[in-house]
Amino acid sequence: MDIFQLDELTDEMMNLCDDKFYNFLEVTLNKDLCELFRVQAIRNMSSLSSVTVDQIIQILTVEIIDLSYLRKSLGFVTTDGGFHLRLGHRNLLERLLMLVKCKKNSIIKNIESTNKYNNNQIQEKLLEIWKQTSSSTNETNIPILFPWITNVFKNLEKTKNKYSYDDHIREFALLIFIFGGRNCYEFLRLNLPAALPHVSNLELLIRSQEYKMIECEFRFNLLKEYSRSANCNFIFVAEDATRSMSCVEYDALSNTFIGFSSPLVNGLPQLNFFRTESFDVLKNWFDKTDISKFINLYMAKSLTPSAPPIILSAYGSNNQFEAIDVIKRWLFIYNQSLIQGTRVIGFSTDGDSRYLKAMRLCSGFFAKLPNLNLFKNSDPFAIKIPEHWSWFFMKQQQVLLFMQDPTHILTKLRNRLLSSVANLRMGNYSIDIEDLIHLIVSKSKIEHNLIRSDVNAKDRQNFSSCLRISSELVLNLLNKNDNAKGTYVYLTLLNLLIHGFINKSATIEERLFHIWTVVFICRLWFSWVQFLDINNIRKNNNNNNNNNNNNNSSQSIKKLKQRTFITKPTFWCIEINAHTLIFIILLVIKKKLPIEALNTFYFNSQICENTFRIARSMAGSFSSITNFSVKSFLKRCEKISIMNSIKGRGDQMGEYSFQFPEHHKNNKEILNYSFKNIQQLNITEHDIEKIINCAFETAQEYVSMVNMTSLLKDKNIYSLPQLSKFVKAVLSKSCSTIVDYSEDDDSDKDSDDDEFEDDEDIFDDDDQIPNIIDEYDDNEGNIISNSLSNISQQNFKGCRIYDRINPQQMKKYFRINIDSSVKYIHKQTACWLLTTSKSRLSNDRLQRVQGR
To answer: Which of 118, 149, 305, 611 sits 20 to 30 Å CA-CA off 455?
Structure first.
């Protein structure tokens, strides 16, 4: 059988080896060529797929005595010793090699086709099973599992250095890295081969995103895309602060030192202020500049409920600022957002007296700001208030609207109840924490659901306690106690505020009713206090302070009256929030704001608190440090921003979807008042009046329960017009009204009024060691420091202090003199050298308040 008679080799032929292989060659080629294969020790057919004719006959080109007969039979030998293979023999060999290679390629293609078919079969089977099980749950989006499996199959067919990942797989890996931390991600990557990209690729992906955080920079460039994705041009901005670890770190990307408290100019922290090439300047900063103890965070939330908030800015602070700084900063954010086509409705904060003062000044709520034109180059909100609405105190034109965080309002009310200084009283009844203690001691927990920590005065930010002490269970028990009527009415205020500000299931009419009921109770109570007999106050105060020898005779009447009422900041917070709610409803009625603006339960600073909590949770599973420095917080904010941007797309990545964990309490929310179902607001000004009148009547009922009615009637302040006129007159007095004469380019100091004195709330990557090269001569701008010239040590093992550095890394180093020689010290090492103490923060909030 001639080799030219074969169109292709069979599988059996491809598996020939040793004697069977040589017998096949004798038959299809000839004995001489078969002998050549024996000489070359080629023993099987499959090995021919990678050889050539020249390689096979190469041994014949060498003069070997034992092979002289084979050279003569297969070819010709020239006079110079060269060998030339006969053409017929060459054709036979080329034909054989061609058939082998074709068969080999065919086998490879069949294997690839089989693998691809098997992979498709597996994927189709998995998808079919999923569709069958998901049809009952109405799931339409395909889980990321299926493209992930497909990607793994593709990578397993390649070498490791050629692994590739689709965009949705990289985003999924990035989310695992953000949620689980580095150790968790590495564990998964090492145990799921070809499934996840390397950590270094993820870090490059993070840096390539547009969410880079720079201290003191406001990222207004994100607002345009954020508004487009949320399909809404209105946002509400929240501001809050938290304690941070006080340390200074060097950021190589921005070439700045992070951790110093940036100076404020017109209320704005200065960007890249702490940048220097001099070690002496850095040392001077360490000696004379405050190191940040707080982190200020600004976040924006679209009116679209499903849109996650975005981080606008974050920076370290020493908490030394004034109300006028806050106003100027708010106006800057407002104006810059307008440039991006986004309208800031207003701001929300945590009830700090300086923020509260800024809100009153900016809104003109019993406050004046004569030298600062708030309406310059602005588009203010304007409404028409009916003249007979004497109970409404806010001005009809506002640049910004404000909401104090309801959670902080509730904790302020709770802290006032637990205060040892306050002597709260309504009518003939005292408001006493002992009423709750009596319930805890005398009743079973199943009847009231209270615990001892609910009455712990040191835990000042315990919001869960506010929910428990104002629950229906507790209120019903207190209502049955005739001696606890004052405490019952007081805790009812908390219950109404929760329903009005926080409960998402309440309709807009219900929220309006609950909030203004609280307002009128507080106004009636406030008016009653103004006419309270001082002798009764002194008598009651002495009875409740047996261990206090400070006679009340030395205390002013004003102080004694203040201590029978809630703190003035709390009172102002409730008033501002209630007026803002009315203002927003009227704007929606006039079509000046979209219907989504009625979701006022989103207008709070809890989005900042939530970001702080998420940042603390990103420390990693093997780290005991849950707090952060300013720099580490900025790094974590970048990851949070990426996570929120993915959520902002509706968790969609093409036809695939990501499912994010959700707290079980959020899953159980009953949204009877669902913003998704509201198409129009069926409420008018007349309806608002009816609700307000009902709220006032309800407030009168609560006031009558504690016997305040007779005094109020005697003073002619029991009707709504009379009460409104009286309260407005009292609040308009100079002791309550704020006047700030600060100008646009000035920041005069403002002192808190005495009305605030009763407010009892207190509120990374290391660079790799550079390659050592010859000293770079061009050191312009890098000043040599003599601060370390008295050091005699020359070996600095473990410290990044070098004799020579890579000139491309020059900006990361200081030039210093050490023992008469010039050396280079890394800027992060300089921070370590100048740091003399280690900042620590307790991981437990209760531990932080024990010393108070």
So the answer is: 611
CA 528 to chain centre: 45
The model's confidence at residue 510, banded by pLDDT at 50, 70 and 90, is: very high
Phi, psi of 800 (to 5 degrees): -85, 70
The answer to whether the beta carbons of residues 575 and 365 sit under 8 Å apart is yes
Helix-strand-coil split of the chain, %, nearest 5? 50, 10, 40
Cβ neighbours of 32 (radius 10 Å): 16
Per-residue pLDDT at 299? 95
Q: Taking residues 462-477, report their average pLDDT.
A: 93
CA gap 94, 194 in Å, rounded: 41
Whole-model pTM: value is 0.78
Q: Which of 447-456, 645-654, 675-684 shows the lowest per-residue confidence on average (mean pLDDT)?
A: 675-684
Cα separation, 632 vs 612, whole angstroms: 12
Residue that is written with structure tokens 């599992």 in the block: 145
Q: Which of 305, 366, 354 is nearest to 328 (CA)?
A: 354
Phi, psi of 811 (to 5 degrees): -65, -15
Out of 53-67, 558-572, 574-588, the most confident range is: 574-588
pLDDT greater than 70 at residue 741: no
Q: Is the pLDDT of residue 592 over 80?
A: yes
**Tens digit of pLDDT for each residue in 117-129?**
666 677 677 777 6
Rounded to whole angstroms, the Cα distance separating 627 from 645 reads 24
Whose CA is closest to 360, among 371, 368, 349? 368
Tokens at 800, concatenated: 């990044």
How far is CA 227 from each of CA 237, 337, 676, rounded to the nearest angstrom? 13, 11, 18
CA-based angle 746:752:758, to the nearest 5? 165
CA terminus-to-terminus distance, the chain: 103
Going by their DSSP bridges, the two strands 294-302 and 310-317 should be labelled as antiparallel
Question: Do 635 and 295 contact (CB within 8 A), yes or no?
Answer: no
CA angle 361, 365, 368 (to 5 degrees): 45
Tokens of 167: 């965009």
CA–CA gap between residue 193 and residue 185 (Å, rounded):
13
The SS3 assignment for 105 reads: helix
Q: What is the DSSP pairing of strand 249-251 with strand 234-243? A: unpaired
User: Among 726, 692, 409, 407, which Cα is nearest to 574's?
Assistant: 409
Looking at residue 739, its pLDDT comes to: 65
Residue 234 has pLDDT above 80, yes or no: yes
Assess contact for 294 and 242: CB atoms under 8 A.
yes
The whole-number pLDDT of residue 14 equals 85
Residue 342 confidence (pLDDT) above 60: yes
Contact of 128 with 155, CB cutoff 8 Å = no
Q: What is the pLDDT of residues 747-758, one digit of tens each?
A: 333 333 444 344
Read off φ and ψ for residue 739, nearest 5 degrees.
-130, 125
Classified as helix, coil or strand, 382 is strand
- Asked if 216 and 262 touch (Cβ cutoff 8 Å), the reply is yes
- CA separation for the pair 766, 426 (Å, rounded): 61
| pLDDT score of 538 | 58
Positive or negative, the Cα torsion across 515, 516, 519, 521?
Answer: negative
Residues 6 or more apart whose Cβ sits within 8 Å of residue 579 = 365, 392, 393, 394
Reduced to 3 states (helix: H, G, I; strand: E, B; else coil), residue 472 is helix
**pLDDT tens sequence across 580-589:** 999 999 999 9
* Residues paired with 403 in a beta bridge: 348
Q: Which two tokens stand for residue 722?
A: 């009379």
- Integer angstrom CA distances of residue 745 from 252, 266, 277, 748, 839: 34, 7, 31, 10, 36
> Coil, strand, or helix at residue 425?
strand
Which amino acid does the sequence have at 601? F
Distance CA 723, CA 700 (A): 11
Alpha-carbon span 833 to 823, nearest angstrom: 15
Which of 84-88, 354-358, 426-430 shows the lowest per-residue confidence on average (mean pLDDT)? 84-88
